[in-house]
Amino acid sequence: MIQLSLDGKRLYVTNSLFSKWDKQFYPEVVEKGSHMLQIDVDTEKGGLAINPNFYVDFGAKPDGPCLAHEMRYPDGDCTSDIWI
């Protein structure tokens, strides 16, 4: 799933969709956990670049492996929901 930040400068991407779909079509993601990347968006000149300093391995979390799903910005509202 993907979600653009409210300022339009960061795009968050995961290799997980919904747990039921992941279980059926991507069982290795369920077994190993999903990942999240950040893509920097150049809103001035255009272009996209993967941020090499941002990588979340949900398989390596203490209670993992986990799937990256419903995540929200702190103090956000319905316009800042991230459905990952």
Automatic annotation (TrEMBL):
It comes from the Eukaryota. Pfam families: SBP56. GO terms for molecular function: selenium binding. Keywords: Selenium. Belongs to the selenium-binding protein family. This is Selenium-binding protein. It comes from Artemisia annua.
